[in-house]
């Protein structure tokens, strides 16, 4: 008899220990660990958002992952009350909720978890909360202004980038749109939504501008074709210079061609003062003399011609 009593006394602590192991997790929710996990679906892609940033206007799924390695709560019934922080409250019995934030901003998401272990047991509750930053995803990069420019001129290009800043922008120009695998890009931090680039094109033709933009939740890459033409001002200056030279040349030729020719005044004056003289000598021969009244310091006749003898 004493032997049976000893066995009973030895089994009682073991039974009590087993009951403690079973009842403690069911009566104390603070010993149950869990976490909130965020997923966002866009097209066929699913993104895990584990840094606290979400994209606005994109389908979002938040799941409460219960940490229960011993499966002590496998038969318990749970209730979930989701307060999204934007005035929307969703209740259900599933540890997942689907929603989307339509506007960017800062929100605090709160989850109230209720556990009903048995029908007679009281409802145990706990609250989980986390801060969420909702950002606008980058969906479009738009070029403002014309798509053609002139060579050898300082050109300013403007682009509008949607999406919540800060934005990391990486850009590069490709002459003749020839890919440059080894070449890098210029990295710029953008705290607004307008990107301005100053560039001087050194050659004509079609150039490509590659732009890659990203923020905390999205990334977008695109390329723009830019046509670079000759400088019209320099071309016009060359044409006007050539026209001026040709006009001056033709004017000079026309003036020389139309100017009247002048006779030598000295010759005219000398000819007008010439005197024709005839003299007969004793032998019947005649001589003709041209006598000039010399001017401008002339002292002697300019011409003396002996005429052939003839009889009168």
From TrEMBL:
Signal peptide from the UniProt entry: 1-20
Protein name stated in the entry: PKD domain-containing protein
PANTHER family: MELANOCYTE PROTEIN PMEL 17-RELATED (PTHR11861), TRANSMEMBRANE PROTEIN 130 (PTHR11861:SF10)
UniProt keyword Signal present: yes
Keywords on record: Glycoprotein, Membrane, Signal, Transmembrane, Transmembrane helix
One Pfam family named in its UniProt record: PKD
Domain PKD: 79-113
Top-level taxon of origin: Eukaryota
Transmembrane segments: 234-255
